[in-house]
Design goal:
13 strands; homodimer; 3 domains; 6-stranded mixed β-sheet; 3-stranded antiparallel β-sheet; ATP binding (chains A, B); Butyryl-CoA Dehydrogenase, subunit A, domain 3; about 10% strand; globular; Butyryl-CoA Dehydrogenase, subunit A, domain 2; alpha+beta
Chain lengths: ~700, ~700
């Protein structure tokens, strides 16, 4: 029984549920149709099937999550992961089912890295013998693993790790050792308290030579009682901004001996006895996994952004603030006309903050699918010896990981702030999204460092193109490679000017694409000139390289959005283009978002577009009018519909202010009654820390009423 | 005894303490001199005196803070606040001492709002009788108060609050009542569990008329035993992104009667019996407090930014990543030359991220002092009936609150990310700064809404100026008011062009100021034209209004920086200009920062500067060269010195990676050993949730070694 009793009061008029109903009545398209466009039927059916199972399982209950400290979060996550594995085994879930269930529950836990990092490492690097020894028990969760690459002093530069694995011919063993404090394994998910094995990246040293990082699977905790094995010291690295249900861990090895089979040997290995190193085949093969992981992160960016903007948009349709004197809102109720405050979603600043984020979700969705398609195409090509897609894919996946995760982190925080004070409450659901999403800008390649890879490839493509053009090949790959197409167009006429003279001209997608292509090309040309002609150092160009990567990747996002809703993006063999099922109304609504995505991106930071010479100042002002028109007239009526189409059940959002039914204030107050501090009327520390000031002699009848 | 034992290993070479020593040896100025410039001697002496007391008091120990959940944080904060009050009484601290002590301890607690909101409300609004009844017991902490303005459905629009206080002539009482759920008091610091009184903002209703929000001091908890009084329901609103040591609370009144004296009556009051309302004098008087609070927030923005960038800069001088092939770093140790990774502070991207933040701290410092000076000048002026400064001050304090808190929040997060993965660990100290700083962008005026006040005033100034110029007064206030000066200059020549042709031209402060003034004026002119000539609605111009406010306030920051280090800002009567004590070396170093602050602001978002016509694309590129030159040649050697000058003792930073001595990794590992999960070798849930998979039959001797 809570000491805080919920008063039996309604919110003042108008009610949230009525407001959302009005919004939904205005929607010009079928919400289900857009959901299907985004996810496909199979996903939506799977979500409904899994949700029914998950919502009724007590181990997956989210009601305590907002209140839990680290230790409680971890304990609950261990139970959750255990229950999830049991359920998966019982229901014979596919890996897709499992991944989808984890998205619904949305609490990264101690067994998570076993599934997403440890096992994939085994799958790609085990010999047949190692499959029996490591992978099969791992699939049964007898072996629970973690992926121990990062060190206390080494993150992005994997080549710099310091842990050693020295081959000892006499015993046919490796000695794993931590030579320095900076070589401590650190940040390793699941290592802190849970894993009994680790895939350790260590420098292979054999026959007196250092061959750099290789993977070794080593036992770290006893299979009998989970105590640490002699020679291994490990623990949890402590609390973090988020991800506190996961036991990120640290580990030291003290001349720890493991048998030769510990080295994952599918690609490279050691000859027993001599310790001779047998080289891996084409190193490029390993890029493929990175591309896949990074393409996946675009999807993650989409999902978390979509959650945040669903909450912020629904709440902004309900939250009212001030009366807009130019167009006051009136409410008719019981024959009375009363002026009420304006929903914040009607203010153009709120629209400028939120609507481009809605548009970004659709942009991320289309580019995420396209990157996955290219990944599989590349895998197929590489299998037949064709590596032509790899460099481009590696480059764009690096830049897109950087851009899209940076966008998502900024957009989540913007959504949180757009909810005013309530965005600061855990009950809004937004702090959790913010905290747990934050590491995406750092892991799988820091967002600044990654852009160097994109830059290098773009500059190489440009130099190759210039050579080919010098040799008279003016149309090299213009029709098949969009990067080369915009570089060619730029080289054809570096002084190209936009011809727009009125607002409606900016709704032309070809014009938008030309602006992004010209801008990107102008930056690339300038950097290559600085590097090759002015002989500037690479370090001095890093800020420009970052900007080049952003410009190129914005081009990709805009292009995939434009082509995707037209049904002009290639589809994987045998797949129907999801755009083919769109009704004209849906296509029109998506076109509005595509226009807003492109034009808002320019309007917010027009500098480089102006510097490229394509746009002039008057055009940027006109384009601003187009942004305003799109927001106020086209997107405003559909805003709630657009976020409803993201199809998040309330169970996922776990938000007082973003639930489907709009009962913002009722749900919020109800959550507050469950705050642990509210379970006693008088707080624990009162006697010791408050009463000595307020009633030092412990007088009875010492009330304010008596004083007055 | 921790189950995680600290290995006796040093980090690999070079050591953090040696690296910081090298950095400090390179510093071209006296660190103490810059500290004194920023804070003055009195502040630094007070800090040393208070720190000696505070560091040895167990209630102020910070070592557990990184690990504590909400309930522990709150319990510790209650103890901390109790101890702090006792210490203040015992040491006879001044209010300045108390405030400074709170900055050192840096944990907003349950008694905080009593001091910073409740008591100031009493001071400014109590009659003499109320001083006796409320203020004096409050000064002794018998009354512990909170300030109950915000409601569940009402934040920024104070006029819209719904709680009522109806005067009942029969009993000479007010009836405080919560008519709707949305009228619940919400977010009220200290109300949740601690306060026994509240200053409640409620709509005064008397003699059948609604006079809008007024302040009432009402008892809410029993002075005898701290239970809630009949008619009042209150509790804690639950966990938040940060500020979890404070009991932000909620409250409902059920026809709660209080005597007439509860209404704070210095400015407006009720005649007993008739209930006649007696009007307040000039309402403008109350603006003064807002200006003061907002000026204070600029100082808060400075302090938190400075903490974050101290941590990030020191760590970036120690953290090494990759080898810069164009200029590899070598280490001489024991007659050996070895190539080591490059400190990340040497990379231009890291410089572009961090150095402008260092510069921003100095910019905020100078503008904060200037706003405080203007506040006191205005108070003095108003006392003699001169309100001439008020509107300008209200406008610039609104815009500066918006701009500087937005900058600070972004800069803190940038510092966190610039520390890579370790910025995500609580032990870096950065997540705490981020979480606790976040509400600054929302409270005391939402950062978007506030800019409308700045815009309104700027547009009014511009219209007045145009009228005066039309009447032939071309030089109105040009020499005394910087806003009118730049507007006049623009109107003299809207087509003014920057004459810079080489990098060094951009180091001219007059040129920088002209760029910011011209840009701001061009936006103001355009908006006023849209509003007055094109008759555009205010709502349709809000995004532009926001940009105008940012542009104007960036001008103020740049101007105060330039004038402040030259010793050209006016000083309060009798005060010595802190710039007068600067040596040439310090002045030169500060000039580098001032240049970087101005030029980086343009370089990062050049769009509006280009659109204003003052700068062209070639000049923006040249200006980029100036930014690079400043970063690599001028600021890099002084970076650690600049942040050392912020004079934060390690006790304030509470950071493993940002401490003065550079022992990053040793301190980090030591903190991890104290993680609660590490106190047992085998985690609590093992038997129930892990062993069923890994050793289901509980076999003895079931080890991996046996399997191999």
């Amino acid at each position: 029984m809570s000491a805080l009793r919920f008063p039996n009061l309604p919110p003042s008029e108008p009610q949230g549920c009525d407001l959302l109903a009005e919004e939904r009545a205005k929607t010009t398209f079928s919400v289900h149709e857009l959901s299907t466009f985004l996810y496909g039927d199979a996903f939506l059916e799977r979500q409904a099937r899994l949700l029914a199972l998950i919502e009724k399982e007590p181990a997956f209950d989210k009601s305590k999550r907002h209140f839990s400290g680290r230790s409680e979060l971890f304990a609950a996550a261990l139970r959750k992961d255990h229950t999830l594995i049991k359920l998966a085994q019982q229901q014979k879930w596919t890996p897709e089912d499992f991944g989808h269930a984890e998205q619904l529950i949305e609490e990264p836990g101690p067994f998570g890295l076993h599934r997403v990092m440890f096992m994939p490492t085994l799958v790609s690097q085990c010999t047949e013998e190692q499959v029996e020894k490591f992978l099969k028990p791992a699939l049964r969760y007898e072996i629970i693993g973690c992926y121990a690459q990062t060190e206390l002093g080494h993150g992005s530069n994997v080549q710099g790790i310091e842990t050693t694995a020295t081959y000892i011919p006499e015993t046919d063993e490796f000695e794993i050792h931590t030579p320095y404090l900076t070589a401590s394994k650190w940040w390793i998910g699941g290592l802190g308290k849970t894993a009994n094995h680790a895939a350790v990246m260590a420098r292979l040293i054999t026959a007196g030579k250092d061959y750099g990082p290789h993977a070794f699977v080593v036992p770290i905790r006893s299979m009998e009682d989970h105590t640490l094995l002699p020679g291994v010291m490990a623990g949890d690295i402590g609390p973090k901004l988020g991800y506190n249900a996961t036991d990120n861990g640290c580990m030291w090895f003290d001349h720890y001996r493991v048998p030769r089979i510990s080295m994952l040997a599918k690609h490279s290995s050691i000859k027993p006895g001599s310790g001779e190193y047998i080289k891996p085949p084409n190193a490029k093969l390993s890029y493929g996994t990175m591309v896949f992981v990074r393409a996946g992160l675009i999807g993650t960016a989409r999902r978390h952004t979509a959650k945040a903007v669903t909450i912020a948009t629904r709440y902004s349709a309900i939250r009212r603030q001030f009366v807009d004197k130019d167009s006051p809102k009136k409410l008719s109720k019981q024959q009375q006309q009363m002026v009420v405050e304006t929903p914040v979603l009607d203010y153009t600043t709120q629209q400028y903050r939120l609507f481009p984020i809605i548009a970004a979700v659709y942009a991320l969705s289309l580019t995420s699918s396209e990157m996955v398609r290219l990944y599989y195409l590349n895998v197929k090509n590489m299998a037949s010896g064709d590596f032509s897609l790899l460099a481009d894919l590696h480059a764009s996946s690096s830049g897109l990981k950087s851009l899209t995760t940076t966008m998502a982190a900024a957009n989540i925080e913007e959504c949180r702030r757009a909810c005013g004070g309530h965005g600061y409450s855990n009950f809004s659901g937004l702090p959790t999204i913010l905290r747990d999403y934050a590491p995406n800008v750092t892991w799988e390649g820091d967002n600044y460092i990654l852009t160097q890879q994109t830059g290098r490839d773009l500059f190489k493509s440009f130099r190759d193109l210039v050579s080919k053009r010098a040799a008279g090949k003016m149309n090299t790959d213009r029709n098949t490679n969009p990067t080369l197409a915009y570089l060619n167009t730029y080289l054809d006429n570096p002084n190209l000017k936009c011809l727009a003279t009125m607002v409606s001209d900016f709704y032309n997608p070809e014009l938008q694409l030309a602006a992004f292509g010209h801008r990107s090309a102008s930056i690339i040309v300038r950097i290559v000139h600085a590097l090759d002609v002015q002989k500037r150092s690479w370090n001095s160009m890093l800020v420009d390289v970052y900007n080049a990567s952003v410009a190129h990747c914005q081009f990709i996002l805009v292009r995939n959005f434009i082509l995707g809703i037209r049904g002009q993006l290639p589809q994987p063999d045998g797949d129907v283009d999801p755009a083919s099922a769109l009704s004209p109304a849906s296509k029109e609504a998506l076109k509005d978002l595509s226009d807003l995505f492109a034009l808002h991106t320019i309007h917010k930071e027009p500098g480089q577009f102006l510097m490229s010479g394509y746009l002039d100042s008057q055009q940027v002002l006109l384009l601003g009018e187009a942004v305003l028109e799109l927001m106020e007239k086209k997107i405003r009526p559909n805003a709630v519909g657009f976020v409803d189409a993201f199809a998040f059940p309330d169970y996922i959002l776990n938000s007082a202010i973003g639930a489907f039914d709009g009962r913002v204030y009722e749900r919020y107050v109800e959550m507050a009654t469950r705050e642990p501090l509210n379970q006693k009327e008088v707080v624990e520390g009162y006697e010791q820390y408050v009463r000595p000031f307020t009633n030092p002699k412990g007088l009875k009848g010492h009330t304010m009423q008596a004083r007055l």
